Amino acid sequence: MLSNAGLTRRFWAEAVSTACYLINRGPHMSLDLKTPFEMWSGKSADYSILRAFGSNTYYYVSEGKLEPRAKKGVFMGYQDGVKGNRIWSPSEGRVILSRNVVFDENSMVNPTVKSIILSDSCSSVDKQVE
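The chain above was modelled as a monomer; its predicted structure follows.
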């Protein structure tokens, strides 16, 4: 998932969390082709919310009347117990939770993410050398 999205190992925890989420919503032979989610909750899984890990997203922000209404981020997975998506915001440098998201799954290559990660790692190396 990380290599397909063009992300570094920095996001391995997000990838593992998303993989577990997907595994629990997939049918298993040992459960007579039922999903672990269905066996646990008694409800069938909703597959309409599934998105490609690492795809570009645009999430809604409310920072002021003349400011942009959306910021670009990277889809990192799903939040348990909440109807929201985990989005990594390069501008803020952290993972946020948002329900108002527009997905751009056609562009999986994230050159902005790579450049931001490289600049972050280079600046921390420079600080250590000084």
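The two ends are 36 Å apart (CA to CA).
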